[in-house]
Structure formats: C-alpha cells, structure tokens
Automatic annotation (TrEMBL):
<dbReference type="Pfam" id="PF00153">
    <property type="entry name" value="Mito_carr"/>
</dbReference>
<keyword id="KW-0813">Transport</keyword>
<dbReference type="GO" id="GO:0005743">
    <property type="term" value="C:mitochondrial inner membrane"/>
</dbReference>
<dbReference type="GO" id="GO:0015218">
    <property type="term" value="F:pyrimidine nucleotide transmembrane transporter activity"/>
</dbReference>
<dbReference type="InterPro" id="IPR018108">
    <property type="entry name" value="MCP_transmembrane"/>
</dbReference>
<keyword id="KW-0496">Mitochondrion</keyword>
<keyword id="KW-0472">Membrane</keyword>
<keyword id="KW-1133">Transmembrane helix</keyword>
<dbReference type="InterPro" id="IPR049562">
    <property type="entry name" value="SLC25A33/36-like"/>
</dbReference>
<feature type="repeat" description="Solcar">
    <location>
        <begin position="1"/>
        <end position="85"/>
    </location>
</feature>
<keyword id="KW-0677">Repeat</keyword>
<dbReference type="InterPro" id="IPR023395">
    <property type="entry name" value="MCP_dom_sf"/>
</dbReference>
<keyword id="KW-0999">Mitochondrion inner membrane</keyword>
<dbReference type="GO" id="GO:1990519">
    <property type="term" value="P:pyrimidine nucleotide import into mitochondrion"/>
</dbReference>
<comment type="similarity">
    <text>Belongs to the mitochondrial carrier (TC 2.A.29) family.</text>
</comment>
<keyword id="KW-0812">Transmembrane</keyword>
<protein>
    <submittedName>
        <fullName>Uncharacterized protein</fullName>
    </submittedName>
</protein>
Length: 87
C-alpha cells in the first residue's frame, strides 16, 4: 500500500514538475532595468527550453520527491487506516 502511494506520487510529480518550475519562475520579481523575462506560461516554457534546455525544467526534482513521496505514502496509510476503523 505504501509503495503504491509512493509510486503514484512519483509518477504524478514527474508529469507535473515542469509546470511547478514554470510557475516558480513566473513568481520571480521582474528586473528593474528592462522588461520582464517571463510573462506567461507558454512564453516562459519556450524561453527556458531555448536558453537552458528541457532538462532544466526538472532542476530540484530529487529534493521535491524526497519531500512529497513520504508525505503521500503516510497520508494514504492514515486515510486507509481511518476507513478501516468504525468512527
């Protein structure tokens, strides 16, 4: 059960992490000496891939996985345990 929850969260994170990275970049304050580098989702995606390569969208993924996989596994285990008890 824990392995299934961890695997599901790992796959979900691998699919959605580039969106999280782009969202983080869009939250950065704009430079004071010119126009903002990142202005929208698709433009940011194109700029990041052109300047840094597609692999940069997964920077920091290992730290993210170390945080979310155990959390997901424990939450699922507690949820299942709560369902099995009659409150």
């Amino acid at each position: 059960m824990l392995g299934s929850a961890g695997t599901a969260k790992c796959v979900a994170s691998l699919i959605t992490y580039p969106h999280e990275d782009i969202r983080t970049r869009l939250r950065q304050p704009p430079p004071t000496d010119g126009p903002p580098k990142y202005t929208g989702l698709w433009r940011t995606l194109r700029v990041v891939i052109a300047e840094e390569g597609a692999q940069s969208l997964y920077g920091g993924l290992s730290a993210h996985l170390m945080r979310v996989i155990p959390n997901s596994a424990v939450m699922y285990a507690i949820y299942e345990a709560a369902l099995r008890t009659n409150f």
